[in-house]
Each structure stands twice: as C-alpha cells, then as structure tokens.
Design goal:
The complex is a heterodimer of chains A (about 240) and B (about 250). In chain A, about 50% of the residues lie in helices and about 20% in strands. With about 240 residues, chain A is an alpha+beta fold. In chain A, a hairpin with a 2-residue loop joins strand 4 and strand 5. The longest helix of chain A is centred in the middle third of the chain and has 22 residues, at about 140-160. The two termini of chain A are about 35 Å apart. The model of chain A has no long low-confidence stretch (mean pLDDT about 90). By secondary structure, chain B is of the alpha+beta class. Chain B has helices at about 5-20, 25-40, 65-75, 80-85, 105-110, 145-160, 170-200, 200-215, 220-230; strands spanning about 45-50, 55-60, 90-95, 115-125, 125-135. Classes of the chains: A alpha+beta (about 240), B alpha+beta (about 250). The interface of A and B includes residues 6, 83, 123, 138 and 198 of A.
C-alpha cells in the first residue's frame, strides 16, 4: 500500500493506547505527527454547540476552553467553514482576526494556530486544532498530515459512535483502511430506508458491520445490491438469502 | 466535427467552466467525457492522491458500477498507482489476464471488456497529484499526437483541481485536494439517496443530480449537498432528457 503515513499514524495511536491514553491519544498523535506544540479535537453537532473531545497538553486544553467560551478561533471557523484556517503569526494578527481570542491565545503561549475541518462528505463532525509556540506556516508535509489526521479522527468518531471502545481504536481504524465510494452510496441508501440522515446512517452501517463481524465494504456492497436492507420500524436489518 | 476542432471546443468549454465558481467534479466529469471523444477511448477517469498517499476516484466518463469498480481496484494496484509513483505516463499498455504486474486489476478489466489502458500523470511542481486514466475495449495504439492531446487534458485536470491559482501555499493546495475528494464523497452519498428513493441505478442517479445542477445553474456538489441535508428531495430533481447518454459502449 502506498499509504505509509497512515501506517505511521496507526502505529503511534497503538502506542499511546497501550499507555491508556483513551480519546486523548488522537490529540497526542496529531501533535506528534505534525511536529507541533499541541492539539485539540472539538466535536460540533450543530454550529452553536462545540464540545472538547480531548487535548494533548494543558496549554491545548486552555486554548480549547477559550474557543468554547468565546465561540471564536480556528476550531470554530474550521467547524463551520469549508476549508482549513490558520493564523501563522498571532502577534501580527492582533488587529485583524479573532479579536478576543488572539490576545488570550498569545497569553497561553501560542504563536501560530491551525484548524482543520473533520467531516465525512456532507456530514460535519467537528474540527482538529493545532498550535505552535513559534510563528510560521506549515510545510506541505505538515499540512498533508493535518488533513490526514482530520480524516482519521472522522473515522474514529464514527467508530466510537458505533460502539468501539477507546482502547481498541487503533485496531478498529486499521480494519477499515480505505473509505471507498460504495460505503457512501450505501449510507445514502440507509438514510432513505431508515428515515434518518447520512451521519446516522454511517453509524448504523458501522455498528451492523461490527455486530455481524463483516467489513463495512462488504456490507456496503450488499446494501447497494439490495441483499441487506434496514427496517426503520423497530430498527432491524433484513437479509435476503440468494 | 474534426478532431482538432473538437479539441478546441473542449478547451473553450473547459475554460468557460474554469472562469468563476465552478464545480470541480463537474468539470472533471466533462473532461473525462471529452477525453473519450478526443482520443477515441471507451472510458476515461481521474484519480487523485490523498494526503495519506492512497489514490481516490474523483470523476469519470461513466458512473456505471463496472467502471467505478476498475477505479476502486486501483486504490490498491494498477496503472494509476504506478503512474503516480513514477510520475511517468503509461502508454499503449496491453492488458492480459495473466498479468503479474497487476494481478487483480488486469483480469477484471479484461472481464469487463477492456483490452488496453493508458495513464497520464497530473503533475504539479515536481509532484504527481493524480492521473488521467484511459481505457479502450480494443487493442490499438495512441499516436504521438494522441499522447500530446491526452497529456494536455491531464494538465487541464490539474488546473481545474487547483482552481487556476498561480501561487498556492501548502494549506491552500491541500485544501483544494481535500475539497475535491470530499466533493466526491458528498456526491456518492447523494447518489445513494436518489437511487433508493426513486428506484433507479447509481448511474441514473448521477445523471439526475447532474441534470438538475445544469438546469438550475448550480454546482454539482451544491446540489448533492442539498440532497444530503434534505433541502432538495429526490422527487423534486429534474429528470434528464436521456439518462443513457453518458453510458459507455457495452463491450
């Protein structure tokens, strides 16, 4: 497989989880893989409500608390916007952006901050925020890693919602190495069958794959072929034997 | 229309599309359609490299399951990966069912009726960000001129994904790659919803979403997003005049 970087992330995640890191493991990995000072993950089910899903160190926790209190900052913007956001020099950005957030972030020790949206297609899950104690832009590799980490976090949130425990997360993620198009088509189908939205449909698919010990790709192919369907009344799955 | 004038028409049409707020998947789908006509192919598609280094399917001349399957396999092996890894075009590659280089891809491509494959790298400042993949049901060689035309189309695909910005920093470039990939996921989610609620194939579902976008002068991804968030219901989509026009010839 060409995705060496993903393997690096899974290996790091497994190491942190053996140390009992739980949900904070993802933040530790994000900070370490991007070689930045710290990371935090925010969950945002709707634009007005943002909660912390973990941080890598005390300063990252303080930064996240400030963002949640002020509803302003890179994580807020990444949760609601389409693109990643950055301020590569907070000291110079004092007059332009995030008027209340910036001086507080500087006081906590951040000099550059970055926010990456966490989403799966049209489903918005939250954002990954990263900070550094020195000013400066991300390199191409660091930016790539930020996006990659955001997509791993998206899958992790899905796996956790579907019932995977925090401590077996690395293993759960590795089982679904690729997110293929069939999964997303199947999620669309289940959303209609279950009278629900695509985000919930993805969780339903993941839980059923988990419960029946099949891969989500195999299940998705069966859903598309109408061999497996979801019954919204009673929330049961129906299998066609063919 | 002669080949040359068709090519000019394609480039003009693409240039028109690239002017302002265009939809990247729509433009790449159009480009794939035109690549099929310009160099006499049976199917064409674009794959893009993700930040993790995997390849993901982005757009093609047909959304039929048999074509999509060939791109799906190529996430793991096949001409696209080799082309992206080496940064070199793969031209006039004959497929055979006992292929040692692509043991999964080649036999399946042959089963689906394809016999030759070509792949042009999408290059950006020394980096290969993806590939334009061309399939033909018969053996047959691309001339030097064909290769130039096809590489020109791969270059247009690169520009389309970068949204013709001349200088892109690391975050912006990654944003544009990530946005293109995410658009594809939104479209797949919407296709699933449309196919289930109107009892049609994925191919027809895509044609409906695309027709609706065209008729209302909206981006493909925007229409797909509206379907996913429920602000457009599948029943309210415009029905395309012919849903079969985009299908490739069946072998």
């Amino acid at each position: 497989m060409a995705n060496n970087r993903l393997v690096d992330i899974f290996a790091l995640l497994a190491r942190y989880e053996r140390g009992g890191g739980g949900e904070a493991s993802l933040c530790m990995v994000a900070a370490e893989i991007t070689e930045l000072s710290g990371a935090g993950i925010a969950l945002s089910s709707n634009p007005d409500l943002m909660t912390s899903m973990g941080t890598s160190n005390p300063a990252a926790t303080q930064l996240m608390d400030v963002e949640i209190a002020l509803r302003e900052g890179p994580c807020n913007d990444a949760c609601t916007g389409e693109n990643a956001v950055e301020d590569i020099d907070l000291l110079r950005g004092l007059k332009t952006r995030w008027l209340v957030y910036t001086p507080q972030a500087i006081a906590i020790g951040a000099r550059a901050v970055f926010g990456f949206p966490v989403r799966i297609g049209a489903v918005r899950l939250g954002a990954l925020s990263l900070y550094r104690d020195k000013r400066g832009a991300l390199t191409y590799e660091q930016a790539s890693d930020g996006y990659l980490m955001a997509s791993v976090i998206g899958r992790a949130i899905l796996a956790m919602q579907a019932g995977a425990s925090g401590n077996s997360l690395a293993l759960e993620l590795e089982r679904e190495a690729t997110f293929d198009f069939a999964i997303h088509q199947a999620a669309g189908i289940i959303a209609i069958q279950g009278f629900t939205d695509v985000g919930e449909a993805l969780v339903l698919l993941r839980s059923h794959a988990f419960a029946t010990n099949t891969s989500i790709s195999t299940l998705a192919t069966r859903v598309i072929a109408h061999q497996t369907s979801y019954e919204s009344l009673g929330g049961t799955w129906r299998e066609e034997t063919s | 229309m002669t080949r040359e004038s068709r090519l000019v028409a394609t480039l003009v049409e693409l240039a028109d599309n690239l002017v302002d707020n265009f939809d990247v998947i729509d433009v790449l789908t159009l480009l794939s359609d035109r690549a099929v006509l310009s160099v006499d192919m049976d199917a064409a598609g674009v794959m893009l490299s993700t930040p993790g280094g995997e390849l993901q399917y982005l757009a093609s001349s047909s959304d039929s399951m048999r074509i999509l399957e060939l791109f799906q396999i190529q996430a793991n092996e096949g001409p696209c990966i080799d082309c992206v890894n080496d940064g070199q075009p793969i031209i006039n590659r004959e497929l055979n069912s006992t292929d040692e280089r692509w043991p999964r891809f080649s036999p399946r491509a042959i089963e689906l009726g394809f016999h030759s494959v070509h792949c042009l790298p999408m290059r950006l400042r020394g980096r290969t960000i993806g590939a334009l993949n061309l399939f033909r049901t018969e053996l047959g060689f691309l001339s030097e001129e064909d290769v130039i035309i096809a590489q020109g189309m791969a270059d247009v695909a690169t520009i389309a994904i970068l949204q013709h910005r001349s200088s892109v920093d690391a975050v912006t470039l990654n944003d544009q790659l990530s946005r293109a990939l995410n658009s594809r996921i939104i479209i797949e989610q919407a296709k699933g919803m449309v196919s289930e609620s109107t009892r049609c194939t994925m191919d027809e579902a895509f044609a409906r979403i695309r027709a609706h976008a065209r008729n209302h002068n909206l981006g493909l991804t925007m229409v797909a997003s509206s379907i996913v968030d429920g602000s457009i219901t599948s029943q309210n989509l415009d029905v395309p005049r012919s849903v079969t026009t985009r299908s490739t010839r069946t072998p």
